[in-house]
Amino acid sequence: MLLLRKRFWLVVLKLVALLYVAGLSLVQVPGLRYDLGPREAVLIEDPADLPAELSRRQVFASLAGTASFEHAFTYKRYGMDITYFTLEEYGTRVLVKTYDRVTDEWAGFVRFPGRLRSFDGHHFSSRLREIFRERAGVEVPANAYVLGMYDVPEVDGWQMAAVVYLGVMWAGMIYFFFLWRGGCRQPVNSKQ
């Protein structure tokens, strides 16, 4: 009976390990869906053209507008300086994110290409809401978006390597957990 319990818990532990590795690969899916998606940007000329719902999707878009640095700020996180600013025509409904240093030339830009996704699906969204509230006294609406400048859809070698690695790891775990019956057994010496 004790042996049966040990085997049961061992199988449960193996299944948990398999689910964990499968979950790690699912983290890669939204990024891969964007990177393997259409390469042609969706042209958005004014706020009325914004997609109605982007809760789970990300779209390669090119927004027409004028940069507004009135509420701009640089968010320093994990050794990176990320600058956020808005577009005049969209107000706080679209927040533009860039890793580049913003200069005076940016005021002359009329088109902003990049990855458009819902604000709530963006990293650090709750902290960004607080920063806007504290520094600018502005509330970010619930239907807001983040545009990651120059984030064009292209397959990243690291991302593909991660998916391949997780697939090989998952297949290896299935083999060793459930299919492999061998071992390093020494033949029993027969007495002569």
Task: Give an overview of the whole structure.
With 192 residues, the protein is of the alpha/beta class. The protein has a domain at 37-149: Beta Barrel (OB fold (Dihydrolipoamide Acetyltransferase, E2P)), CATH 2.40.50. It is 35% helix and 26% strand. The protein has a seven-stranded mixed sheet. Strand 4 (80-87) and strand 5 form a beta hairpin. The longest helix has 26 residues, at 2-27.
**Biggest β-sheet: strands ordered side by side in the sheet:** 1-2-6-7-5-4-3
Following the backbone from N to C, one meets helices and strands in this order, namely: HHEEEEEEHEH
Termini separation: 38 Å
Question: Number of helical segments?
Answer: 4
Estimate the helix proportion, in percent.
25-40%
Total strands: the figure is 7
Q: Averaging pLDDT over every residue, what do you get?
A: 82
Global morphology: elongated
**Overall CATH class of the domain at 37-149:** Mainly Beta
Task: Determine the structural class based on helices, strands and strand pairing.
Answer: alpha/beta
Question: Largest sheet at a glance?
Answer: 7 strands, mixed
Q: Beta-strand level of the residues, as a percent range?
A: 25-35%
Secondary-structure blueprint:
Blueprint: H1 2-27, H2 29-35, E1 42-44, E2 58-64, E3 67-77, E4 80-87, E5 91-98, E6 111-118, H3 125-136, E7 145-149, H4 157-179
Parallel strand pairs: 1-2, 5-7
Antiparallel strand pairs: 2-6, 3-4, 4-5, 6-7
